[in-house]
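Recall the central idea of this unit: under ordinary conditions, the amino acid sequence of a chain determines the structure it adopts. In this exercise we apply that idea directly, starting from the sequence alone.
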Amino acid sequence: MPGWLLALRVAGMGWYVALCVVLGVIAGLWLDKKLGASPLFLLGGVLLGVAVAFYGMYKMVAPLFQDAGQSDHDSGEGRD
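Accordingly, the structure predicted from this sequence is:
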């Protein structure tokens, strides 16, 4: 994979994580305002945003490791 494509993918992952957390905060604040449960939904939104971000990051990074493992195997690296 070319370096610029990898850089774009990593930048996209950063935006994805930020968006997940920010949306969790916004949703939590909105629910707290509607239901009057001050920090409860904010904390839940942050935790949910972080969990979704980590899961999405795993799904985005897993193919990169598979591609790297295949290229190492194809080139003969890692053999004794």
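The two ends are 26 Å apart (CA to CA).
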